[in-house]
What we know:
The protein is α/β, with parallel strands linked by helices and 297 residues long.
Amino acid sequence: MSEFTTKQGPEGFSVEWLSLRENADHRARSIKLTQKLTDWSKQIPRLNVIELGAGTGSNLRYLCPLLGHKQHWTLFDNDLTLLQSIDSLLVDWAVKHSAQVERINDTLHISSQHFSAHVQWQHCDLASHLHGLPFNEAQLVTGAALLDLTSARWLEQLATNCIKHGCASLFTLNYNGTVDWQNSIAEDAQVTSLLNLHQIKEKGFGPALGPDAHAFYRQSLIGQQQVFTGDSDWVLGNEDLDLQQALINGWAPAAIEQGPDASLMIEQWKEFRGAAVSQRSSALRVGHTDVLGLPVG
């Protein structure tokens, strides 16, 4: 779903956009799946985590306090600008959680009464170097708002690596194709249809599966791991007006790119939806699905 917003350039999404969506992301996540993961993690003396498409570290900031002590995270992303923001953001976050932070070489050591983690980050082209990541050293592979940007071939490789090396995996906030506006109008469905077509275009990983990605990944794990899914819909109201406006601003050009003949309708839709945000009378639900795979035995 992130792909519907404007990018800062070919390297990836902006720090500002990821910051804007973080609160909504954290509110949306499936509590059921998070609890299943934390219950499983209690069996692991030292939890080595690989995060794919880590961005600014939002997924770590959500999961790390829940997974206890002796975590080691390696964050991978292809965007150097995002990776360069991680240090200061994690330090600020750790301080807010009354955690101690120590830098040793290229590693942040974060520790508190309830959790501790060593955190590193690396630049990596995930589209072409997935096979080179240290799955053999990991117990958990995770990512957020990623799978819907990827292809069937890439997801098959991901599932194969997790199964082969006995890794659990949690991939959250995968867009599932539904957008429901309060006080809906006919144009909403037309714009969403265009957006869903735009979502299956090339995103850097091969032809993207878009709204079908979470189901494809789930099916790739079934029979080899325990697999669970859970809703993680964004529910956006008056506390999220800036995020709503950013979505409208990003969705309109994506829809026009997909359906240029409908550009006038889309511009009118953008004006209507923007006015509702300005009047504080806008709300919507954006559908996402989380997928959790746990090794058997």
